[in-house]
Write a sequence for this structure.
């Protein structure tokens, strides 16, 4: 996937250097891979909402649960379905749970009935805009992701940003604190839980982290 991106930029667009590589969630993982595979191609990197290590523990478990929900549905038919299988909705229930923020969900659904309605509407909206095979590919694409063995090879400055309420990348595991010191020019920011954070989805709300990005950009060569 990262090779395809590189070829699009370098061979398709004929761009030989990037000011910044920035990605969220899966794009965050891509950013770490860019840093290792093409270490001098960019001035800096900002990976948001991931960790530079193999997907394991609960992070792997929920992905497997969601994939089993789809593949275990007979209507999936080995990927040759004529209509979206019900397993797609089941998979999104798992995804909504792990990517959410309990504080925000209680605001959005302060009663039992409101919570039931919210679940129904969110799952229906997710299924309507998705495809079972596509979601499978997204979830399974990280199976061979593991940049942890080459972190010392990263030479570009890195600003890594995660949020404290991200259940997909929970800070209590201490993964980032162990790995970031191996990256020679890296800063790690853990955004605290606040009324502005949205769990794993915090990466989408630039207002929460844009000040860190702006300061980081000022430190890059040629500012």
């Amino acid at each position: 996937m990262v090779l395809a991106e590189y070829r699009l930029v370098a061979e398709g667009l004929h761009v030989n250097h990037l000011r910044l590589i920035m990605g969220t969630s899966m794009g965050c993982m891509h950013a770490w891979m860019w840093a290792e595979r093409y270490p001098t191609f960019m001035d800096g990197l900002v990976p948001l909402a991931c960790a530079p290590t193999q997907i394991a523990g609960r992070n792997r478990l929920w992905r497997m649960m969601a994939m089993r929900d789809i593949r275990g549905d007979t209507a999936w038919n080995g990927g040759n379905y004529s209509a979206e299988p019900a397993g797609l909705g089941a998979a999104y229930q798992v995804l909504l749970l792990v990517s959410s923020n309990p504080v925000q969900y209680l605001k959005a659904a302060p009663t039992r009935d409101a919570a039931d309605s919210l679940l129904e509407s969110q799952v229906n909206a997710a299924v309507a805009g998705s495809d079972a095979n596509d979601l499978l590919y997204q979830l399974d694409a990280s199976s061979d992701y593991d940049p942890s063995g080459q972190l010392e090879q990263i030479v570009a400055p890195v600003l890594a940003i995660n949020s404290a309420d991200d259940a997909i990348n929970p800070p209590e595991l201490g993964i980032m604190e162990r790995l970031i010191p191996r990256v020679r020019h890296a800063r790690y920011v853990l955004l605290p839980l606040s009324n502005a954070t949205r769990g794993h989805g915090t990466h989408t709300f630039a207002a929460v982290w844009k000040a860190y990005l702006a300061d980081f950009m000022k430190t890059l060569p040629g500012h």
User: Anything to note?
Assistant: The mean pLDDT is 96. The first strand starts at residue 18 and ends at 24. The CA atoms of residues 43 and 222 lie 9 Å apart. The beta strands are 18-24, 42-48, 158-163, 186-191.
